[in-house]
Amino acid sequence: MATQELDLYEVFLRSRRGLDHKHVGSLHAEDHEQALEYARDVYTRRSEGVSIWVVRSGDICASQEDDSDSFFDPSDDKPYRHATYYELPKAVENM
Amino acid sequence: MDLKQATMQYVTRLADDSIILSHRISEWCSNGPFLEEDLALQNVALDYLGRARMYFTYAAELEGEGRTEDDFAYLRDERQYTNLLINELPRVDFAHTMARQLFIDVFNTLYLEQQMQSKDVTLVAVAAKATKETRYHLRRSHEWTLRLGDGTEESHQRMQKAVDSLWGYTHEMFDVDEMEQQLIEAGIAVDSAALRPQWLEKVSAILTEATLTVPEDSWVVRGGRVGYHTENLGHLLTEMQFLHRSNPGVTW
Question: Are B141 and B210 in contact (CB under 8 A)?
Answer without folding.
Answer: no
